[in-house]
Each structure stands twice: as C-alpha cells, then as structure tokens.
C-alpha cells in the first residue's frame, strides 16, 4: 500500500473527473474518483490523528488542498472528499469539524474564519428518482469572498457565493447568494442588515 504522504496527483485527470469539476453529471463510482477519495481519506487520517505541531503536518495540509496561501490553519478533525478542489487564501482559519464536499471547486478568500462545525457542500443529486437511484451525481462550485466570518454549524449549499466582508450567523443554512457587506442569518439564510461603516472600516475594533 502506498503511503499517503508520497502519493502524487496525476498530471492529467480522466473524463469523469473532468465532468465532475465542470458541474456535469458524472459517475461517482468511477475507479479514478474512488482512488482519489481513498487517497484523500488516508491523508486526512494522518492529519486528524497527529498533533498539529508534528513534523510534516503543515506540509501534509499543503499537499491535501488544491491551493493555499500563507498563514492557513485548520484545527482537526477536518473532512473533505478530494481536497484538490479546495483553494484558500491568506490568513484562513477553520475550527473543529469542518466538512467540505469538494466535487466542484471551493474558493475561499483572504482573512476568512470558519467556526466549529461549518459544512460546505458542492455535491448534489438529481431530484428525479430514476437517475438518483442509479448513482448519478453533479456539483456546483462555492465561492466565499475576503474577510468573511462563518458562524458555528452553518451549512453552505451548492452553488452559493458569499460576498466580501459579510458575516453568516450560527446555524444558518445558506441556499442562495449573500451579497457583500451584510450580516445574514437563518434557515434559509437571509440578509438581516447591512454592516455599518464602522464595522467595515479597516482596523476598526471588534
């Protein structure tokens, strides 16, 4: 068995991977996708059972994600499907029990904070019964802007974009896009109010 820390991603992905990341219907049982998920799980197992200050931990996190800037930290346990489709910016932090289903790309900007239990889903299934029971799946990308704070146990659904500087209240289920510079809460998540000029000012007190 190949050690997860030495596995290299293929330079060219197969047709089901290409369909998956493009948001087209795909076969999740495809051998390449199954192997990629198993590789991801093996690497997650190492990250989640070791101390975050253990030698090589940070390097494993870098290898797991599709892209990361400096000062990126995730408190274990962390869970994802592939890792390769997650791209995070500068000064990113995710607290305990973050789950990202990254069948499509997830782009997270700079200075983003995820509270415990945040779940980000790009994966979805057909509403129609026949294709759903045959295992057809597809996805929609998620984008989170800069300086966003996501509260505890928030669920972000497929295809959602959250604008810069916004705050999503704890327990919210985000089913639609959230504009920049607002506080939004609820299930389904709705804009509660715009943020004030003082709240949006760089260097303003918390």
Distance between the termini: 49 Å
Q: What's the number of domains?
A: 1
Largest sheet: 7 strands, mixed
Order of helices and strands: HEHHEEEEEEEEEEHEEEEEEEEEH
How many DSSP E strands? 20
Q: Roughly what fraction of the amino acids lie in strands?
A: 25-35%
Number of helices: 5
Question: In which order are the strands of the major sheet placed?
Answer: 3-6-9-14-17-19-20
CATH superfamily: Hexapeptide repeat proteins
List unreliable stretches of 5+ residues.
1-7
Q: Round the mean pLDDT to the nearest integer and report it.
A: 91
GO molecular function: galactoside O-acetyltransferase activity
Protein name: Acetyltransferase
InterPro entries: Hexapep, Hexapep_transf_CS, LacA-like, Mac_dom, Trimer_LpxA-like_sf
Domain Maltose/galactoside acetyltransferase: 17-70
Explain briefly what this protein structure is.
GO terms for molecular function: galactoside O-acetyltransferase activity. The protein has helices at residues 15-22, 31-49, 57-64, 129-133, 197-200, and strands at residues 26-27, 67-68, 73-74, 78-80, 86-88, 93-94, 98-101, 106-108, 113-114, 119-121, 123-124, 136-139, 142-144, 149-150, 155-156, 161-162, 167-168, 173-174, 182-185, 190-194.
Give the helix/strand layout.
Elements: H1 15-22, E1 26-27, H2 31-49, H3 57-64, E2 67-68, E3 73-74, E4 78-80, E5 86-88, E6 93-94, E7 98-101, E8 106-108, E9 113-114, E10 119-121, E11 123-124, H4 129-133, E12 136-139, E13 142-144, E14 149-150, E15 155-156, E16 161-162, E17 167-168, E18 173-174, E19 182-185, E20 190-194, H5 197-200
Parallel strand pairs: 2-5, 3-6, 4-7, 5-8, 6-9, 7-10, 8-13, 9-14, 10-15, 13-16, 14-17, 15-18, 17-19
Antiparallel strand pairs: 1-12, 11-12, 19-20
Helix pairs in contact: 2-3
């Amino acid at each position: 068995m190949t050690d997860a820390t030495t596995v290299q991603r293929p330079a060219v992905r197969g047709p089901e991977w290409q369909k998956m990341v493009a948001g087209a219907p795909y076969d999740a049982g495809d051998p390449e996708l199954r192997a990629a998920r198993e590789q991801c799980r093996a690497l997650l197992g190492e990250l989640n059972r070791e101390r975050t200050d253990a030698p090589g931990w940070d390097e494993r996190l870098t290898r797991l994600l599709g892209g990361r800037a400096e000062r990126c930290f995730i408190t274990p346990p962390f869970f994802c499907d592939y890792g390769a489709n997650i791209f995070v910016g500068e000064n990113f932090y995710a607290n305990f029990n973050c789950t990202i289903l990254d069948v499509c790309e997830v782009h997270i900007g700079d200075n983003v904070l995820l509270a415990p239990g945040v779940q980000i889903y790009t994966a979805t299934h057909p509403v129609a019964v026949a294709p759903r029971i045959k295992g057809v799946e597809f996805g929609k990308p998620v984008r989170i802007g800069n300086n966003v704070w996501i509260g505890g146990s928030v669920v972000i659904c497929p295809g959602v974009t959250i604008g810069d500087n916004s705050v999503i209240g704890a327990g919210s289920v985000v089913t639609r896009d959230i504009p920049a510079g607002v506080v939004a809460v609820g299930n389904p998540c709705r804009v509660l109010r715009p943020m004030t000029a003082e709240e949006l000012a760089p260097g303003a007190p918390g």
